[in-house]
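Now read this:
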Amino acid sequence: MYLVNAADEVGVHVFPHSTFEWRAAEHSLDPDDVDTLLDVILHEVAMPSRDDALVHDDPGALAVLRETYNLPGCSHRESPMRRAVRRASRVSPR
């Protein structure tokens, strides 16, 4: 997908086809609601991460975190699916 940022710079945003399925499950969205899923996917990349060590140096990112932290549907909280995947990836094969 071609994108244009605020500085009129053109870029490309690429994501795997399974992203739609993952976001539908992660946020309890209708998997057939492609418009909403695409909106979520495209906005995710602009959301600052509270795990980013440099987020405290960016007043704009810090303001976004303060406004959105713990709101329903925001990606700042770890979803049950991500938690399960993270825990499963820690299990060492026997």
Q: What stands out?
A: The chain has four helices and two strands.
